[in-house]
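lol forgot to send this yesterday, sorry. struct tokens for the thing we talked abt
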């Protein structure tokens, strides 16, 4: 039943109501309680649930425990289940935290298994990869034992107060700190456009200046496009300041200054993994992948944009191998590449194999064989482009559907501006109208036709993106065994926050046991 007293169709969530000879006819001498508990002869249980197509009842929570975050109704059980999927979590309870602007915010209390550890930041990132942004807990408390009620049951209502969590007020603004670097000034300019009239100090929280989670999505898209990196949403949720965003870009986009080889993780004694980024040359996704693979796997990134301009793909691959041998003089080698970087990684592996050197791993992550682009013909290329557009439209539609209509025009304009800034350089390169000096050259890729080689490879494909391109076009080039692995579609790329752990797990699985 919905709030107005109408019964709902199968599959729709609402309050569970019952009636029959086994149900009480009412409370004795308590008309107020009867009026609240009965509607049209149905007894309102206070439980939330839905009936499936076969008539089975699925309980999804208690109505009194639903978190109302700025009008968004959030079932705490959904958050419980996501946190409980984390291997270190023994018990988790989501609850409402009072919020001055939104009414309520999401909080969670977590117990971890003995001998294991999990920080609040790690659990927020885990939740962010599996939940919509507004459902990610703002506050997570790691406790030895979650407080229980008099009957020994876990109680969500009042749990924030029991844990000493104060009501949140994002209107509190501290001393003004002006932008100190060109990067902070660029981010501040985007904030001023999103929040007209608001001050833009580098330590002010976005929400304190009048922003919300929907505006934040558009803002981060613009910053990501301007800086040519993926700004992690979860870091923004945790701190929400210009300074935090700028620091994240500074430390993660190029973790080490100078040199064409960038150490992402130098700990551990295993054979290093060498990675080549996509055509934009940004290393943030690779840095997060390295972190997800654990401390025992050394990872290095090769940045082609710090190398000399190459006349051919083979020449670029030779330059990369020169840098690789400075770290690892002899094989076996482990190589991975994303998009354009996958093509470079294949050519590196082909050259090594041609010289009798072992390639232990070749991972082609969302990397389409450029020969397919030529051989497939115009209709197939157009169909692939249209399919990408359809996926991106569907993803954006799901975001827009939950917005207030007053926010849609601004969000749409932000996404459009981000698209043109993000892809403008590549489009210009295709028509020969511009060259921004980056090593990635459309002509370099268009001239390249991979020669067949007895290699084994794992091809990581984005689900549904190129459904009619078997093995992403590598069948004629990789003459050994091709293993296919799929990851969900994400408009921000294969190494976006939602997929980076999956990619890391795929690579780790292929390497498992080889260093023993």
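and heres what i got for the seq, position by position
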């Amino acid at each position: 039943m919905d709030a107005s007293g109408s019964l709902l169709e199968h599959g729709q969530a609402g309050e569970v109501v019952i009636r029959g000879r086994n149900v009480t006819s009412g409370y004795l001498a308590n008309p107020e309680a009867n009026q609240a508990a009965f509607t049209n002869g149905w007894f309102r249980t206070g439980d939330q649930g839905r009936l499936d197509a076969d008539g089975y009842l699925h309980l999804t929570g208690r109505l009194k425990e639903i978190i109302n975050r700025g009008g968004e109704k959030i079932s705490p059980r959904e958050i419980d289940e996501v946190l409980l999927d984390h291997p270190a979590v023994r018990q988790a309870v989501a609850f409402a935290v009072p919020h001055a602007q939104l009414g309520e915010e999401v909080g969670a209390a977590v117990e971890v298994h003995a001998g294991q550890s999990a920080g609040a930041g790690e659990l927020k990132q885990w939740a962010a990869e599996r939940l919509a942004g507004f459902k990610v807990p703002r506050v997570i408390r790691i406790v030895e034992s979650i407080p229980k009620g008099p009957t020994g049951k876990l109680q969500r209502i009042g749990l924030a107060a029991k844990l000493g969590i104060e009501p949140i007020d994002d209107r509190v603004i501290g001393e003004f700190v002006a932008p100190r670097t060109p990067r902070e000034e660029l981010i501040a300019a985007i904030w001023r456009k999103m929040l007209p009239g608001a001050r833009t100090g580098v330590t002010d929280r976005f929400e304190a200046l009048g922003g919300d989670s929907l505006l934040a999505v558009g803002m981060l898209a613009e910053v990501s496009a301007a800086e040519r990196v993926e700004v992690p949403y979860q870091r923004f949720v945790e701190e929400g300041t210009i300074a935090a965003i700028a620091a994240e870009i500074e430390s993660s986009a190029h973790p080490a200054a100078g040199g064409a080889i960038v150490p992402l993780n130098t700990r551990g004694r295993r054979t290093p993994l060498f990675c080549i980024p996509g055509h934009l040359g940004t290393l943030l996704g690779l840095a997060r992948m390295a972190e997800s693979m654990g401390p025992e796997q050394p990872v290095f990134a090769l940045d082609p944009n710090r190398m000399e301009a190459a006349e051919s793909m083979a020449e670029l691959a030779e330059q990369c191998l020169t840098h690789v041998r400075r770290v690892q003089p002899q094989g076996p080698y482990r190589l991975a590449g994303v998009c354009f970087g996958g093509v470079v990684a294949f050519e590196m592996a082909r050259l090594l194999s041609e010289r009798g050197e072992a390639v232990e791993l070749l991972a082609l992550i969302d990397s389409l064989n450029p020969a397919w682009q030529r051989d497939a013909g115009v209709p197939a290329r157009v169909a692939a482009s249209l399919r990408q557009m359809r996926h991106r439209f569907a993803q954006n539609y799901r975001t827009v559907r939950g917005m207030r209509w007053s926010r849609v025009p601004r969000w749409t304009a932000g996404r459009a501006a981000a698209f043109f800034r993000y892809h403008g350089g590549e489009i210009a390169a295709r028509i020969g109208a511009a060259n921004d000096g980056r090593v990635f050259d459309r002509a370099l890729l268009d001239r390249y036709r991979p020669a067949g080689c007895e290699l084994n490879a794992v091809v990581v494909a984005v689900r549904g993106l190129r459904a009619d391109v078997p093995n992403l076009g590598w069948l004629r080039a990789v003459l050994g065994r091709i293993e296919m692995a799929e990851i969900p579609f994400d408009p921000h790329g294969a190494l976006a926050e939602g997929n980076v752990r999956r990619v890391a797990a795929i690579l780790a699985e292929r390497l498992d046991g080889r260093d023993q």
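Residues 254-258, 425-440 have pLDDT under 50 and may be disordered. anyway ping me if u want another try
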